[in-house]
Amino acid sequence: MSTIATNLKYVRDRIARAAERSGRSAADITLVAITKTVATDACREAYAAGQRIFGENYAQELAEKAMELADLDIRWHFTGHLQSNKAKLVAPLVACVETIDSFKLADALDQRAKKPLDVLIEVHIGGEESKSGVAENALPELVRDMAKLGNLRLKGLMVLPPFELDAASARPYFQKLRALMEHINEKELYPEPLTELSMGMSHDFEVAIEEGATIVRVGTAIFGERT
Ligand SMILES: *Cc1c(COP(=O)(O)O)cnc(C)c1O
Asked: Hey, whose CA ends up nearest to atom 7 of ligand 1?
């Protein structure tokens, strides 16, 4: 087996064990392989090992990779900060944009999406360290406004805790994200209940799964350290 295939198997095993520990099914957890800065040959290896969902952080890099890998049946997630003026480039290429952080961006994607597009709202939780995402207190209004957009389907929330935190310190961020989603559903702020929590990366995905993650975004543990 190639290193990437071995790594993928190990990550999948760890996902399964974390799910089992929390009384959940591994089938309910989606692994997004984060391929930013990763060469397309490595993406092909992951694909050959059964991975189908990939995530990119930069619009231009996504466009290039999507073109080079167009022969593969990949579902792309966009996981980086997205400027509204890149909506036109990104909307036709992706199955999901995980990083809605303003109505302006949601509206731009809605106009550019030719068919229903799944999206998540990235929430900025807590301290100043993490700069991306919508503030907690602006979340209810954004959710309500997004109900007016015909092409976007809001599925859930995403969080990126400050990078320097270890897994244990990230846990409260994951708990908070889950509580925010439950609040949105209790108040019925969106026509459909939200179901997805995208949280957890290479160093903390097991903790995130214990706290209810349905999507984990893993790069380094699959592809090795980025250069
Ligand atoms: C880079 C990145 C990841 C993956 O991080 P790793 O530590 O390499 O697993 C996940 N989510 C987002 C938003 C990222 O930018």
From this structure: 202
pTM of the model: 0.97
96-100 and 134-135 beta bridge pairing = unpaired
Query: Using CA atoms, how far apart are residues 159 and 213, in angstroms rounded to an integer?
Result: 10
Q: In angstroms, what is the span from residue 92 Cα to ligand 1's centroid?
A: 23
* Token duo for residue 146: 């997004």
Q: Are 29 and 215 in contact (CB under 8 A)?
A: yes
74, 53 in Cβ contact below 8 A? yes
Distance 12 CA to ligand 1 centre (A): 16
Average pLDDT over residues 194-218: 98
Q: Which residues have any ligand 1 atom within 6 Å of their CB? A: 34, 36, 57, 79, 160, 201-202, 217-221
Q: 21-44: per-residue pLDDT in tens?
A: 999 999 999 999 999 999 999 999
Counting from 1 in the atom list of ligand 1, the atom nearest the Cα of 203 is 7
